[in-house]
Design brief:
Elements lengths: L10 E5 L5 E5 L15 E5 L12 E5 L5 E5 L4 E6 L14 E3 L2 E5 L4 E6 L5 E7 L14 E3 L2 E5 L6 E6 L5 E6 L10 E3 L2 E6 L2 E6 L5 E6 L9 E2 L4 E4 L4 E5 L6 E6 L11 E4 L2 E6 L4 E8 L5 E8 L3 E6 L3 E6 L3 E6 L5 E6 L9 E2 L5 E5 L3 E6 L5 E6 L11 E4 L2
Antiparallel strand pairs: 1-2, 3-10, 4-5, 4-35, 5-6, 7-8, 8-9, 9-10, 11-12, 12-13, 13-14, 15-16, 16-17, 17-18, 19-20, 20-21, 21-22, 23-24, 24-25, 25-26, 27-28, 28-29, 29-30, 31-32, 32-33, 33-34
Length: 399
C-alpha cells in the first residue's frame, strides 16, 4: 500500500450526550500530511435509537438545495423539516436509508443524522471531519447491517467509517489511499467492499481490519454490487470486472463499446446476471451479462441520449434519460415495454407506489406523481424557488 492503513483515526473527538469531550491521538502519525482537524469525529446523542412506527402518508424529499423534509400526500402539507448545521449545504448529492422507522441521512458537510420518520426528531448527530465549506460526503447512501452504518468520505477526510446505529458512535474507521471515494459501499459475507481511485478494498465489517486490496490500471469509479456469490465493479472507461469476494481475484472482465463509459452507480445484479448502463457520445446502452461466464446476453441502445438513472423493479429495468425519457425494459430479453417523453425533467431516484399504478420523482421544479395508465404528470408539491444548476434530489416513500 502507498500509505499505512490504521485502525483508528489519527485524531478524533467524541462528544457524548453529557457534553464531555475526549481527544485521542496517535503520536506516531504526527507527520502525516492529512491535518488532524480533517479527521476529527464528533458525536452527540439526544436519545438512543428505538424502532418507530411508519407514517405511510409521508414521502421524504431531500431537496437539491440540501433541505430535508417530509410531505404529507394526504393533507398536502409539509410535516417536518431538518437541515444540516452549516449553511454550506447547497446540494443534496446523497441518498437516505430508512430502517425500523429511522431515517439515516448524510449531508455533504460530513454530518450524519438519525431521524424519527414521524416527527423529524433527531436521535443522534455524528460529524466526519470539521469542514464547513467542502464536500465530505458525496453520492453516499448509508449501508446498514449488523448494527453498523458504513460510509466513505472525500478529501480532505478520505476514510471509510463504521458507526454504531444505536447512538452514532464510532465503531471503527480506516484511511483510504485516494480522495475520490464517491460510491456507496457494499456489505456482503460480513465484509465491506469499496473503491478508491484505482483500488478495490475489502474490510472486516466487525473490526475494520483490511482483508484485501487490489489495484487496477485506471480509476475504479463504479459501485460494487453482488449476485450473492461474486462482486462486480466497473472502471471509469469500458470494463466491468467480476471479483472473488475472498481475495478480490479477477474472475472475468467484460469490455463493452470503447466509445462508452461512466457506469458508476448504474449497475445491479439479479438472478445470476449483471445489468448496467454505459454512456456514449452518440449511443448509450443498457447491458445484461451472465454473471458466471461474463458473456453478453442482450443490449438495448438509446441513440443521442444518455441514461441518467436505472433501477430494478418487479423484474424490469426502469429508468430515465438526460432528455427526460422514462422507460421500462424487460429483464429477460431487453425489450422496451414502456417508453414516454416526460414534460418534467427528473433529477432524483424513482419511487414506486404500493398500488403499482404510479411512481414518484422530484423534477427541477416539483414533486411529480406519474400515472402509468393516463401518463399524467401530477404536481404534488411545487417548489417556491428554482435553481438553474439543479442536478440532484432524493425521494423516499415512508413504508
Amino acid at each position: 500500500m502507498k500509505k499505512k492503513l490504521i485502525t483508528l483515526l489519527f485524531v478524533f473527538t467524541v462528544v457524548n450526550v453529557f457534553g464531555q469531550i475526549t481527544t485521542v491521538s496517535n503520536p506516531e502519525e504526527t507527520n502525516n500530511k492529512v491535518s488532524a482537524s480533517a479527521d476529527i469525529f464528533t458525536n452527540k446523542v439526544s436519545k438512543p435509537v428505538t424502532k418507530v412506527p411508519l407514517d405511510e402518508a409521508l414521502i421524504l424529499i431531500y431537496d437539491y438545495d440540501g433541505t430535508l423534509f417530509t410531505f404529507d400526500l394526504e393533507s398536502e402539507t409539509i410535516a417536518w423539516t431538518v437541515k444540516a448545521t452549516d449553511s454550506f449545504t447547497e446540494m443534496c448529492a446523497n441518498g437516505v436509508t430508512l430502517l425500523d422507522g429511522v431515517l439515516y441521512v448524510p449531508f455533504i458537510n460530513g454530518e450524519i443524522f438519525a431521524i424519527d420518520n414521524q416527527t423529524g426528531e433527531i436521535f443522534w448527530k455524528s460529524r466526519l471531519g470539521d469542514s464547513k465549506d467542502q464536500i465530505i460526503l458525496k453520492n453516499q447512501t448509508p449501508v446498514i447491517n449488523n448494527g453498523k452504518l458504513f460510509i466513505t468520505t472525500q478529501s480532505p477526510n478520505n476514510n471509510i467509517y463504521a458507526l454504531n446505529v444505536k447512538d452514532g458512535s464510532l465503531a471503527w474507521s480506516n484511511k483510504l489511499d485516494a480522495t475520490n471515494n464517491d460510491m456507496p459501499v457494499l456489505f456482503f459475507d460480513n465484509k465491506v467492499f469499496t473503491q478508491s481511485a484505482s483500488n478495490v478494498y475489502s474490510f472486516d465489517a466487525n473490526t475494520g481490519k483490511l482483508l484485501n486490496q487490489k489495484s487496477f490500471e485506471g480509476v475504479i469509479s463504479g459501485k460494487p454490487v453482488t449476485d450473492g456469490e461474486t462482486i462486480f465493479i466497473a472502471n471509469e472507461k469500458n470494463v466491468v470486472y467480476a471479483l472473488s469476494p475472498d481475495k478480490l481475484d479477477v474472475l472475468w472482465e467484460f469490455k463493452f463499446d470503447e466509445n462508452q463509459n461512466n457506469v458508476r452507480e448504474h449497475i445491479f445484479a439479479k438472478d445470476k446476471k449483471v445489468y448496467f448502463a454505459a454512456q456514449g457520445p452518440e449511443v448509450s446502452s443498457i447491458y445484461a451479462v451472465d454473471s458466471k461466464a461474463g458473456t453478453q446476453l442482450w443490449k438495448t441502445d438509446f441513440k443521442e441520449d444518455n441514461i441518467a438513472y436505472i433501477i430494478e423493479e418487479s423484474d424490469n429495468v426502469w429508468g430515465y434519460t438526460r432528455k427526460g425519457k422514462l422507460f421500462q425494459i424487460d429483464l429477460t430479453n431487453g425489450e422496451i415495454a414502456f417508453e414516454v417523453k416526460l414534460t418534467t425533467r427528473p433529477i432524483s431516484n424513482l419511487e414506486f407506489a404500493t398500488d403499482d399504478e404510479s411512481l414518484f420523482y422530484f423534477s427541477d421544479a416539483a414533486l411529480i406523481q406519474f400515472e402509468f395508465k393516463t401518463k399524467d404528470e401530477n404536481e404534488m408539491y411545487l417548489r417556491t424557488s428554482i435553481k438553474d444548476d439543479a442536478y440532484s434530489a432524493f425521494v423516499k416513500l415512508i413504508r
